[in-house]
From TrEMBL:
Gene Ontology cellular-component annotations: nucleus
InterPro entries per UniProt: Histidine_triad_CS (IPR019808), HIT-like_sf (IPR036265), Macro_dom (IPR002589), Macro_dom-like (IPR043472), P-loop_NTPase (IPR027417), Znf-C2HE (IPR032566)
Protein name: Macro domain-containing protein
GO BP terms in the entry: single strand break repair
GO molecular function, one term: DNA 5'-adenosine monophosphate hydrolase activity
Boundaries of every Macro domain copy: 330-523
UniProt xrefs under Gene3D superfamilies: HIT-like, Leucine Aminopeptidase, subunit E, domain 1, P-loop containing nucleotide triphosphate hydrolases
Origin superkingdom: Eukaryota
Listed Pfam families: AAA_33 (PF13671), DcpS_C (PF11969), Macro (PF01661), zf-C2HE (PF16278)
PROSITE patterns, per the entry: HIT_1, MACRO
DNA sequence: GTTCTAGAAC
DNA sequence: GTTCTAGAAC
């Protein structure tokens, strides 16, 4: 009986490594079964899913049936998913006993918003648990009220908490990448707010009560650096030389990937979880860029990347064995002694690297067209087609076009076949220079410009890749390390007479291409006066529309988004609405204040529309804006010392013309109406001016936090961090919440308080 | 950015 | 029936 409930993924458990029992935990609709299915589909480790809903062969199953089934799978050397809710400790206890010195016990907690679970439960039709329709909400709510999050002390070796889809994705990646021999580090991962408050917060809104709570941090959650994948990659990287390293130590061509497959099967390879980018040679095919020159540039850029970033692989891919560019690059890589663990070439179809070639890549580059549209034949068409409509949708969300030299990172939803079949989590569109007269924007053999643009293209591409590694490797909320810190990890053990990290390395990485992993920018660019014939292109119209010609246009702005720009350019015409005018800035009250006090300090420079436009040359202006903002905050504090201010920028503002928000933290305003309003001031989307200045000083650029991800986050109180189901409830909560601000805000002068409140003044 | 509104959620 | 969200239009 038990056998038919199991879904083994491999014939026999060859199991040299320890089997794992992963106890999934989550409400109906939290995605437990989906999680198992995804991992089972893409993992090389043999897994068995034990599901109480199906184990009873038609009837509801029992716990002991599950235990029995799990035990027999473990005896076969298989790893096991326990797919049941497991929300309370008592329910879990018996399964935890499956753990032993030979069997590692893990928990994956799908702690997603109740609303989401409910809506999924309601929507599902064929779910095995037969939990459908209106009952779902009641059941989910009842279950969640009893929820007890697991603790290591219960007997778990490792616990992964997932609080949103992106956490789930990361956990999926981690377990999918786990081969026979791999082990994962022990500890708790992903618990973003190891604070019982939050859980109470959720419970409270389910119970429809609201009282400020005061619960201390839970000491049972050891904090770990969250770099699961990176840590693991490091381990495996050091453990063995990698499947593809050749004896010569130089880049080697892997044909069809057969050898890789063989290695994977016998379990000697655990390199597949090293972040890997597969990319085609940019511009050398249809755009007819000189191969010799292109190969030099590829090597130059690869070398730069490889020397800066640990635990990542770049793979140059071409469909044809006879590829000229591949052989050129291979030869040059050998000359330059580039570490073949980190860079090699590969012959195969870039949309089938894993399924046909056994090469696992989490990112692939697409030599896109400027419209970022499918079609056109070649790899672009193939990638769009292989990725499904999801890629087009996700691309469209982020940009409408691309200019030569730029890259655009697009995360793939798990529903995309490229994701589920090939394990590709991101496609990075990149556009190179064109030397083909038959194609738009031909550079007419100008290889000075062409080489420059091609360099930019690879820089953007690799930076985009690094930005993914960064987000995947580090999920800590509020972690603001950006690409720079990743890139500036110095690597002493890699030989070569390349420039390492010179203390003042800014020039090198300062004006790099745009990796727009999250920002939803349209039409980036026009720096360095690209000769770009766009009189009838989208850009052309946009330029007119924005009354702006030449460099630095970052985004298409609608007509309603122009008012701040007009004010900054002609303050004298708007005197009535302004409270201060100087040569550099003007100050005005926000027309729709989101708090008792909310004003804007507006930069007056033409061409400076948002944070993405800001560079080191604007430092002085940023400091002026900050000083002016601070002065006003202090003035307001004299009038009401109970106020608290934050001063900062929106990552991706809706209104054109760089403006600094000075906003009191009461958020008491009828204009604060929706989630986007709230999150734009209370998520990483809001960039404190002090941090922006620091980042520009150190790196020449400011971190820009993803619009979509940040603005759609669940609603949490900015003081006690409790979660709330909707805006009215949140607003009623914040009108009473007196909790102190979270530590992250109390640091580094992010909050501006009355002198008597801040306490630390001499 | 706001306003308007359909329809989802309660 | 009422409340709330989210997408389109401006």
């Amino acid at each position: 009986m038990a056998e038919m409930d199991c879904e083994p993924t491999s014939k026999e458990g060859e199991g040299q490594g320890k089997p794992i029992v992963v106890l999934l935990m989550g409400a109906p609709g939290s995605g437990k079964s989906t999680f198992c299915e995804h991992v089972i589909r893409s993992s090389t480790r043999p897994w068995v899913r034990v599901c109480q809903d199906t184990i009873g062969n038609g009837k509801a199953g029992t716990k002991s049936q599950c235990l029995k089934s799990a035990t027999s799978a473990l005896e076969d050397g298989k790893s096991v998913f326990i797919d049941r809710c497991n929300l309370d400790r008592e329910q879990r206890a018996e399964f935890v006993k499956l753990g032993s010195p030979q069997v590692e016990m893990h928990a994956v907690v799908l702690d997603l918003p109740a609303q989401l679970c409910i809506s999924r439960s309601v929507k599902r039709t064929g779910h095995e648990g037969n939990l459908q329709g209106g009952k779902a909400a009641a059941v989910v709510n009842r279950m969640l009220q009893k929820k007890e999050l697991p603790k290591l002390s219960e007997g778990f070796h490792r616990i992964t908490f997932c609080q949103n889809d992106s956490d789930v994705q990361t956990a999926l990646n981690t377990y999918s990448a786990l081969s026979h021999l791999d082990t994962l580090p022990p500890g708790c991962f992903g618990q973003k707010n190891p604070d019982a408050k939050i859980q109470l917060g959720i419970m409270k809104f389910l119970k429809k009560v609201e009282v400020p709570v005061n619960v201390g941090p839970d000491a049972n959650f050891p904090k770990h650096p969250l770099s699961t994948q990176i840590t693991k990659a490091k381990d495996s990287c050091c453990k063995q030389p990698e499947d593809i390293s050749s004896s010569s130590g130089n880049a080697k061509e892997i044909k069809g990937g057969e050898d890789i497959v063989v290695h994977s099967v016998d379990g000697t390879v655990s390199s597949k979880d090293i972040p890997t980018l597969a990319f085609p040679s940019i511009s050398t095919a249809d755009f007819q860029f000189n191969h010799e020159k292109a190969a030099d540039i590829i090597l130059e850029k690869v070398e730069e990347f490889v020397n800066k970033v640990e635990n990542a692989r770049l793979v140059l891919v071409d469909l044809s064995h006879g590829s000229k560019i591949l052989s050129l690059v291979r030869a040059k890589a050998a000359q330059r002694n580039i570490d073949s663990n980190k860079f090699f070439t590969f012959v195969g179809d870039i949309t089938r690297l894993y399924s046909k070639g056994g090469l696992r890549c989490n990112a692939i580059a697409n030599a896109a067209n400027w419209r970022l549209k499918p079609g056109g034949g070649g790899a672009n068409a193939a990638i769009f087609s292989a990725a499904g409509p999801e890629l087009e949708v996700e691309t469209k969300k982020r940009a409408g076009s691309l200019i030569p030299g730029k890259a655009l990172v697009v995360p793939l939803p798990s529903t995309s076949p490229l994701f589920s079949r090939e394990g590709v989590t991101h496609v990075i569109h990149v556009l190179g220079p064109n030397m083909n007269r038959q194609r738009p924007n031909c550079l007419n053999n100008d290889y000075v410009k062409g080489s420059k643009v091609l360099r930019e293209a690879y820089t953007s591409l690799f930076e985009g890749f690094a930005s993914i590694m960064n987000t995947q490797g580090n999920l800590l909320e509020g972690s603001s390390e950006n690409l720079r810190s990743e890139l500036s990890v110095s690597q002493d053990h890699f030989k070569g007479n390349h420039i390492k990290n010179v203390p003042n390395h800014d020039q090198k990485i300062k004006r790099v291409g745009v990796y727009e992993s999250e920002t939803s920018k349209k039409c980036k660019g026009f720096q360095d006066e690209h000769e770009f014939d766009c009189t009838e292109s989208k850009e052309g119209k946009d330029k007119l529309n924005n009354e702006k010609i030449g460099r630095n246009m970052t985004k298409t702005w609608g007509s309603w988004a122009q008012s701040l720009y007009h004010i900054a350019m002609h303050p004298e015409k708007h005197k009535d609405n302004l409270i201060e005018i100087s040569d550099d800035v003007v100050v005005l009250n926000d027309l729709y204040p989101k708090a008792q006090r909310h004003l804007l300090v507006l930069a007056r420079s033409e061409g400076l529309d948002c944070l993405a436009d800001v560079g080191g040359e604007h430092l002085q202006l940023l400091r002026t804006m900050h000083a002016v903002g601070l002065k006003w905050a202090e003035k307001f504090l004299c009038e009401d010392e109970l106020l608290v201010f934050r001063i900062g920028y929106h990552s991706a503002p809706s209104m054109r013309q760089l403006h600094l928000h000075v906003i009191s933290q009461d958020f008491n305003s009828k204009h604060l109406k929706n989630k986007k309003h709230w999150n734009s001031f209370n998520s990483a989307f809001f960039r404190d001016s002090v941090d922006v200045i620091e980042e520009i000083t150190n790196h020449g650029r400011a971190t820009i936090k993803g619009e979509d991800s940040q603005l759609s986050m669940e609603l949490r109180c900015h003081r006690c961090r409790s979660a709330h189901p909707n805006m009215p409830r949140l607003k009623s909560h914040i009108s009473n919440c007196q909790a102190s601000f979270p530590p992250s805000l109390l640091q580094n002068d992010r909050l501006v308080l009355a002198p008597s409140k801040s306490g630390s003044e001499p």
